[in-house]
Amino acid sequence: MGFELSLEPHASYIVLDGWEIGLGAKLNLPLLVNDPTYHRKFPIKWGFDFDTRYYFDVKNFFYPYIAVFAGFDMINHYPESFLYNFGFGGGILVSLTQNLALDFALNLKAIFASTTFQRAEINPGILGIRYYF
């Protein structure tokens, strides 16, 4: 049990009407951990993600969408810690202003190590804030 600092910047670009592609990075650093041996290992987790979304224009203040994503994670630079994932999902983007929106999503992700399936994650109710330039 402890605290981690998690940085996950993400940038997206709308390439066609309603179709968006994005690239993100992840960095997780342990800050406070109760395990005294944990700091000697100091596992820095990092990775990259790619995603694409298609927004349906329903002529309203909200935009339903579907998404497909893939990425990888690694702990420090240990080759045996390489994990890759892919998944799909959907959600609703609720427009608050012309440039600001709330993002409600449901994602299903499969995680693999080498060719071995590790686990599946269902992430319901993901809430995000998106700002558009």
What would you say this structure looks like, in words?
The chain is mainly beta and 133 residues long. It has one domain (2-131): Porin, CATH 2.40.160.20. The chain is 3% helix and 72% strand. The protein has one helix at 38-41; strands at residues 2-7, 10-16, 19-33, 45-55, 62-75, 83-95, 100-113, 116-131. Strands 1, 2, 3, 4, 5, 6, 7 and 8 form an eight-stranded antiparallel sheet that branches. It starts with a strand and ends with a strand. The mean pLDDT is 86.
The level 1 CATH classification is: Mainly Beta
Strand residues, percent: over 45%
Helix content: under 10%
Shape descriptor reads globular
Helix count?
Answer: 1
**Could you give a short account of the major beta sheet?**
8 strands, antiparallel
* Class from secondary-structure proportions: mainly beta
Distance between the termini: 39 Å
Order of helices and strands: EEEHEEEEE
Number of strands: 8
> What would the CATH topology be?
Porin
Tally of structural domains: 1
Rg value: 17 Å
Extract low-pLDDT stretches.
none
The CATH architecture can be named as Beta Barrel
- Mean pLDDT across the residues is 86
Q: Brief overview, please?
A:
With 133 residues, the chain is mainly β.
Which terms summarize this structure?
single chain, 133 residues, mainly beta, Porin, 8-stranded antiparallel beta sheet, 1 helix, 8 strands, globular
List the helices and strands and how they pair.
Elements: E1 2-7, E2 10-16, E3 19-33, H1 38-41, E4 45-55, E5 62-75, E6 83-95, E7 100-113, E8 116-131
Antiparallel strand pairs: 1-3, 2-3, 3-4, 4-5, 5-6, 6-7, 7-8
